[in-house]
Amino acid sequence: MTEQPTCRRTLLQGAALAGVAGLGLTACSGGGTSSSAPTSPTELGAADQIPVGGAKLFRDDKVVVAQPSKGTYKGFSAVCTHAGCVVDNVEGTVISCPCHGSRFNALTGAVEQGPAASPLPEVAVRVQGGKLVAG
Ligand code: FES
């Protein structure tokens, strides 16, 4: 009788540890960038502040919003994929990172100049009542 609860407890502890380990791995693999950009809905202001064919940086919210064509919005994490600095400038369609000089395409998130090797991850952006909502 005493063995069964012990075995069950051991199994539960093992499962709990496995669960914690799983969560830890999940947090590590996605934590670098996805936890930095908005993951819960964040209002960014009027949608018409984004130039058509251009983009705007919302540095405090760590997101860049582009409008490749009228009424179509795309969001990207503003956290550089090289070493995690927050990008600091958007000029035309070029996003620049101040730390080591990486540049990204503001309309696609693609790397235009290293050392970053990966594109900026997309962030969901929608327009709600004329306002941009990211995350
Ligand atoms: S962190 Fe952006 S270029 Fe290194």
Automatic annotation (TrEMBL):
The keyword Metal-binding applies. InterPro entries: Rieske_2Fe-2S, Rieske_2Fe-2S_sf, Rieske_Fe-S_prot, Rieske_Fe-S_prot_C, TAT_signal. Residues 42-134 form the Rieske domain. It holds the Pfam family Rieske. Keywords: 2Fe-2S, Disulfide bond, Iron, Iron-sulfur, Metal-binding. Gene3D superfamilies: Rieske [2Fe-2S] iron-sulphur domain. Its cofactor is [2Fe-2S] cluster. Iron-sulfur subunit of the cytochrome bc1 complex, an essential component of the respiratory electron transport chain required for ATP synthesis. The bc1 complex catalyzes the oxidation of menaquinol and the reduction of cytochrome c in the respiratory chain. The bc1 complex operates through a Q-cycle mechanism that couples electron transfer to generation of the proton gradient that drives ATP synthesis. This is Cytochrome bc1 complex Rieske iron-sulfur subunit. It comes from Streptomyces silvisoli.
